[in-house]
Amino acid sequence: MKPVSAEDEILKIGAALNLSEMYKNITCYVAHMAQELGIVLKNTPVSIAVGALQLVCTTYELSIDKKDISSKCDISETTIHKSFTLLSNYKNYLIPTKKLFDKYMEMKSQTIPA
Q1: What does pTM read for this prediction?
Q2: Which of 52, 57, 84, 102 is positioned for an S-S bond with 30, CB 3.0–4.6 A?
């Protein structure tokens, strides 16, 4: 049994919110980079997921807010806000350019599931 990852949570919450595949993938990229950069070492996978999702929704002006996310994943708006605030401080490093996102998707498609 493998531990739950932020990506697992993003896919689950994204599906519940009817988030497009592209925005789910961008959110996974944000969570992945936040972990790689050591920004979220003390955060749980679900906290990372909701913070990344809120950052993506805010950046791309999607019609999903903290209240929507909170109701779909049963996590407090305060937790979402704290995680979002932490990640938004590093927004320039976390929101991908098209080139970086394409490279991430290429790398992700080459990963063989365990």
Answers
A1: 0.88
A2: 52
